[in-house]
Amino acid sequence: MLPPKPPLTLLIAAPRGFCAGVDRAIHIVELALQRYGAPVYVRHEIVHNKFVVDSLRAKGAVFVSELDQVPDGVPVVFSAHGVPKSVPAAAETRGLDYLDATCPLVSKVHRQAERLVENGRHILFIGHARHPEVVGTFGQVPEGRMTLIESAEDAERIAPADPDNLAYLTQTTLSVDDTAEIIAVLERRFPLIKGPRGEDICYATSNRQAAVKAIAKACDALLVIGAPNSSNSVRLVEVAEREGVRAALVGRASEIDLAWLAGVRTLGITAGASAPEVLVREVVEFLSSHFEVREEEAEGPEERMVFKLPRALAAA
Ligand code: SF4
Predict the structure, then answer these.
(1) Distance 18 CA to ligand 1 centre (A)
(2) Rounded to whole angstroms, how far apart are CA atoms 84 and 140?
(3) Which of 92, 114, 118, 133 is an active site residue?
(4) Ligand 1 atom with least separation from CA of 173
(5) Class of domain 20-103 as given by CATH
(6) Is 22 in the pocket of ligand 1 (CB under 6 A)?
(7) Which fold has domain 105-189?
(8) Do the beta carbons of residue 209 and residue 173 sit within 8 Å?
(9) d(CA 205, CA 175)
(10) Can you tell me the distance from the alpha carbon of 124 to that of 107, in angstroms, rounded to the nearest whole number?
(11) 205 lines ligand 1 (CB under 6 A)
(12) Which atom of ligand 1 has the smallest separation from the CA of 80?
């Protein structure tokens, strides 16, 4: 007879996983494949998740890092993270059919940046260097009109030429707590700085961070399902650790290290905004084969956000 499996309670965060922007971006690629047939080119990973990218690749999507890798005469989709203005301009010059899957909440930040610069403000942009969303947002305004602030130390050090004529904006997928700290420094140093009317950190990012905080104290460890290049997923690991819980990021079940779970009685599970629910189920099944699992779904706010498709695909 096999020895009994050790007990493990799974506390599953809510909300978790796909947000409305990711859902829309994936749908855009699928509809483009239906409408134009394969191949459909996609500039950059449509969302930061290998499973999603591999599934779309199997249906005929071709992922490239730059527009000049797209042959003439084939459609191209821009990823959910947004692109600099130069990218659609180059696609137009080449006569390429393009579909923009930029999340509408990222586009909103783009429009804010344009307006602030038109009004003569210099923008301090709170975000992470080289993240595609940051590259895309910097590409909305002329060079030199926006400065990246990555930390409270950067905010303390910055010496702008015209300190009375500043504004700040943020990446959508930041840590809510770190960003509040950076903004507090900027507002203390530059009392006339202008901030966004609503939050730039999106509803999905803040809801998923709040959901981790809500379960962290009841967990011995917490697993975040997501990719290492997914900003919002990495932030979820940090949020758990700040709550005093050991946390790890895994792409999928096969990456789980059973030794890491030694002594864990209650394991929290969540998923970043670009990780599909099927990967959560895969993790639960994997754990069920090693432990006597009791699954508990946390309570959290229901998300009803749905974004419209681009006009070119709306009737597809
Ligand atoms: Fe849009 Fe937020 Fe999702 Fe990014 S995480 S795609 S900003 S809803």
Answers:
(1) 9
(2) 6
(3) 133
(4) 5
(5) alpha beta
(6) yes
(7) Cobalt-precorrin-4 Transmethylase; domain 1 (3.40.1010)
(8) no
(9) 8
(10) 18
(11) yes
(12) 6
Q: CA gyration radius for the chain?
A: 21
285 is catalytic: no
Q: Measured in angstroms, how far is the CA atom of residue 106 from the centroid of ligand 1? A: 7
- Closest by CA to 101, choosing from 37, 171, 27, 41, is 27
Regarding the beta carbon of 207 and ligand 1, being less than 6 Å apart is answered no
Question: What is the block-wise mean pLDDT of the chain (316 residues), using blocks of 10 residues?
Answer: 91 98 98 96 95 97 97 96 98 96 98 97 97 98 98 98 98 96 98 90 97 98 97 97 98 97 98 98 98 97 95 76
Amino acid at 246: R
Total residue count of the chain as it appears in this document: 316
What is the Cα–Cα distance from 206 to 216, expressed in whole angstroms?
15
Cα dihedral across residues 312, 314, 315, 316: positive or negative: positive
| C-alpha closest to that of 11 among 262, 203, 208, 211 | 211
User: What fold does the segment set 7-18+203-297 form as a domain?
Assistant: Cobalt-precorrin-4 Transmethylase; domain 1 (3.40.1010)
Question: How many Å lie between the centroid of ligand 1 and the Cα of residue 289?
Answer: 34
**pTM of model > 0.90:** yes
CA 91–ligand 1 middle distance (angstroms): 24
User: Does residue 105 line the site of ligand 1, with CB under 6 A?
Assistant: yes
Q: What is the maximal distance between C-alpha atoms in the chain?
A: 76
**How do the domains of the chain map onto residue ranges?**
7-18+203-297, 20-103, 105-189
Q: Does 20-103 match 7-18+203-297 at the fold level? A: no
